[in-house]
Model the fold of this input.
Amino acid sequence: MLRKVDAGWWLAIGFILACCAYEYGRVFGSRPFSHHLWRQTSCLSMTYNLYMGEGGLLEPWFHNFFGDHGTSGRSAGEFTGLYWFVAWIWKLTGPREDVYRAVMLLLHFAGTWSLFQALRKLLSHGGWAALSALFFFGTPVMAYYSVGFLTEVPAFDLVLVGVWAMVRHYPLVRASDVLVACLFFALAGLLKITALMAPLTLFIWLLIEWLCDSSRVGRAVLFPNKPVSLMAFLAAFGIVLAWTLHARNYNNTHGVFFSNQSILPIWTLPADRIVYYWECGRDLLVYQLFDTPGWYVLLGMLVYVVLSWKAAPRMLGVPLLFLVIGVLLYSILWWEALDGHDYYYIIPMIVPVVLLATFLDTLRRRHPKVFASPWTVAAFASLVVYGVVYTANNHEMRTRGNGPLITERLLPLYSAKEFAFWDGLRYGSMADMLDLEPYNRSIGIRSDDLVINFDDPSVCAALYLMRQRGWVQFGSSFGTEEDVQRLIDLGASYLFVVNERWLAEPYLQRFYRYPLGQHRSVRVFDLRPFQGPDHRVPHAWGHAPPTM
Done:
């Protein structure tokens, strides 16, 4: 009876069960969790501004007026296509973060389904394809960010969709398949330029096929129409390059960069910092990709592929080699990301994907009985189940906090160091801003009023959380009385203070003359009495967003 059920149904059921294990129902109703709050709220800020009718696909806006000498929120990083799409849906649902999370999960299921279909086509075995796809959904980094707000997982998913589009008629690959695939590769690269890692390896394989006789690279030829394929890849790379140049020009024009847009190479660091980042990666980051059994299994697969190199399919093995080299170079160039920026390694997860595919195809060719054995499939299925359980525990640690129940459940698996680092409820000075928006409205602060927040060092975390635009530490100076008065002259009407040290500064005392209210640790002061008759308001949105 079980054999009659299509493997696609088993994949869907497994995906749903994993979502239940990760408690996505609870997570969907939560505000952005504190770890990497900076990055999360930057994405949400651009989305919300698009929803409010500010900016567009080519002109992103933030809540923080850090551009144009403090008069606008203009700045660009990755392409805003995902934010625009979510903002369009928000026109129907309202600006709901759970809707954003739902869009992310649907995109991830599309990527997981595409991986399943590509592997089923390659291996001619639905069971292995379904389990392999679920294996990668059973990793903490994928589970956490697949319902988050960052662009790394959607970019990864679009790469997988592109791969499936290319191989769906394999071994007959049509020119139209390559064109569709490159469209998805371009979209992936626009969301995250490092997503071009996989398409670039396919491009290298195209060149190898073009320059070498097919018998030397394997009997199967992936690109029969090489001129069309070449133009498709160059067009995809060109589209990403065009956006990159536009974003750089846009930022230069408005005088601000909201994120690091350069490399963080190992050779610029002193020896003690190199060791520090290595230890962070070893103790924290690697366990967000796979748990120890997962790493051992992948290592075993790698050893098997190396020892069976002559039997390994060249169409997979050679790109795998280039991908491994690419990830090593990537790690060296962004060494500082090892301090806990686990989402930097979502895109490089393509390496274990290709490694698993190469291993299974090699096993199918060399040891078909072992490959088809239900015992082998069952052993891998047990690893998948273990991974889901491990990830469920990790996800709870990240999203619920270090309470008594979770401590009892997870201490055998995690150290106190990990709890302290990944605690999802560690908001610091912004903890009381999660529900500040209703309080602001209750005391007469409108959504289009501009504000100052002394405590936020990020791009716009505090401003987004309370749905106000204005100025924070990032991009602004509060070092003198004149600095604050300048922002008031630009339209700042209210001041938000959490840290007591700001209240003790003598040069700021006059701005505290008109207290308006207090929401737990957040003190609110009225700045309107300090506005002159000719104060300038650069821009402020209305209460109702225009239609898109």
Summary: Residues 404-408 have pLDDT under 50 and may be disordered.
